[in-house]
Write a structure and sequence with these properties.
Blueprint (H helix, E strand, L loop, with lengths): L1 H16 L2 E6 L6 H9 L4 E4 L3 H13 L3 E7 H17 L3 E6 L12 H13 L3 E5 L5 H15 L2 E6 L1 H4 L7
Parallel strand pairs: 1-2, 1-3, 3-4, 4-6, 5-6
Amino acid sequence: MSEATTWPDDIFRVLRAAEIRQVAYVPDAGHTKLINLCRADNVIRAIGLTTEEEGVALLAGAWLGGQRGALLMQSSGVGNCINTLSLAKVCGFPLVLIVTMRGQWGETNPWQVPMGQITADSLRLAGAIVYEINEPDMAGPAVEAAGRIAFNGGTTVAVLLSQRMLGTKLFKD
């Protein structure tokens, strides 16, 4: 369990080192610790969204204004972003997505399964480079690599954090 709780700290350190100044997010249990770290930071501006595609536009504006950003979301939110991902591709601005996966390992909510099974393929079809992470100790290095290629190449890179790594949500009374 200690490994599972350190990946948010690793990613946060990478975001700070990469000079990320804006982190957009839709509240998500899988990202809770990372969101809280960003919200408590005095350099990173954490911006809550009502829907994930708002984050693509927000980070386009951040880039145009000279700031780097990252978008945190759950795999079900990737489906909401498919049309807006074309903005990043056509305009050639960097976009880093950090996605907690659902609909995979031991999922208990059948509504999460369809999108969870096609998230990586959907992102690739939309032109994103995709890093699928299954081990907590690879989360930080993957986000670092994603930032490097996104910010140096003006491309979209998604880091998918496996449900097996995060643990399965169990909905109990």
